[in-house]
Amino acid sequence: MIYPSESDLSRPIYIEDSPFLFHYTTYSSALGILISQQMRMGSLANMNDPLEFENHRGEGLVFCGNPSNRYLAKKVFEFANAVAEKDRAVRLASFAVDGGNQKDYYNNLCKGWARSRMWAQYADNHKGVCLIFDKDKIIKTFKKEFKKPCKTYCNAVNYTNNLESLREAFSSSCKSLLTLDKIDYLFQKCEDFEDEQEFRLLLINKKLKDSKEIVSFSIANSICGVITGAKFPKENELTLQKAIKCCNTEIRRFYISWHYGMPNVTDHEYHKLRVKEILGE
Q: Of 57, 60, 139, 148, which residue is most buried, by most CB within 10 angstroms?
């Protein structure tokens, strides 16, 4: 297990070299993850990009030519079944990674823990938590827990507004949207989301009955750090500390602060020393 230090989180690093994954969440969800030592996977229907949550069931008309009504009805039926299968069978866990705009390489704005949009949207407007995971460990555990006939994929998201290849792939064959030639499109989002620098753990389990069926996996051997938001309520501090100890006493604890728009992290021990200095203890 790689445990992060303050210097690890602040030094310049490229996305392919990052040893950590970062997961933004609310305080209550963080407690659930830490105490249960399980991470729940979400469905595509709950994602924010229209590429993922839109309903394609009426798209039989995408097929070229002038098919008979009977032929068209068959294709629409096949496509509806394929969309239902995708909604039912796909689960994913989303993380942020280091990397992004090269001009930010030497400051913290390219760090996975420093995504202001993520703190606002997923971590309760800076009142939540960013969990840090050992990248290699969590991928290894994820793949080990979901064996055949399940399929697992782990990759960074590709951001593009050129959707022509996606449209062509889906219109050429509609019996399944989960074939090998279409998996890349489950790691594709519009450029509007590029600042998130998302990395996905994606599961395909065709035995799942519906999109609401709960799926989770263990993070006991991969969670290595916790960062609390700049507006994290002080009254929640003690409960969070207890949850961290319940999960793993070696987990590193960090605090984030923002100065003129630039994020910084300090570790727990340094923070305690500063408090003592301020109080004159």
A: 60
